[in-house]
Amino acid sequence: MSSTITSALHWRCVPNLDATKPTLIFLHAAWMSSPMFEETTEYLSSILSNTNLLCVDVNGHGKTVDGRETFTLWDQADDIVTLMLGIKKAIFIGISMGALIIMRLALSHPSRITALCLISSTATAETPDATAAITQVRNIWVSTVVPSEAIMDISIRGWGGEPDLAGTRAQQIKRHWVARHSGAKNIDAILKSIVERDEILGRLREITVPVLVVHGELDETWKVKEAEAIRDALVNAKVGLEIVKDSGHMVLWLRDSMDIAGMIGNFVGEIITSTVH
Predict the structure, then answer these.
(1) Which of 44, 133, 161, 209 has the fewest Cβ atoms nearer than 10 Å?
(2) Is the full-model pTM beyond 0.85?
(3) What is the pLDDT of residue 121?
């Protein structure tokens, strides 16, 4: 089941949405879209058969074309809550930008959260050096009608690890970028929401639901210390931290992610069992 014309944000649910069942809501990384979770949801559907697996394309991404043109991460969180389709509470899974959004959703709408899975995330503000580097990449990206192979390769390498730039997975990401994120109009609002984000590390004590933090050992976007800082700041929540060996920032889609799906499945299975009983 997928969204209708009445929904500003495009969404897809496996199987057909039933608001009475436990729900997982997946939020993708920046300049990605909900298909990055297809491998994950295919696995989870086999072990969580009585659960909604709801993937959303947030503003500026994927098949969401009638959403906000400018937005903050807090706006993105508000729009997800507005979308929730009669679902009172959900387990939220987010990667990179998606994790930034769901942390803010947990702070601004705590009653809508059952648990969180934060993949490749940070709770700190962007540094001036990182902002300058991102701006440089942005300027090269938009200097051509579609991003060049060279600048896309630089972007993927920047995630850390040893990505296979010529491999099927990297090529799929590049095709998506060319189709959906060519030109300033299709990247600038997203970029602004990320580089101008506020620091929320000091507020994470407000989160009391269970949290799973997953982070690539070789992540160069936000290093492992960012995940450790999130874990340490969640003083009022039950927290688990999983470090993915030999992986960079994009632990989903760019690599076989059955290990991540297994981590999510184990975490969610415990949450659902505990809430049922």
Answers:
(1) 133
(2) yes
(3) 98
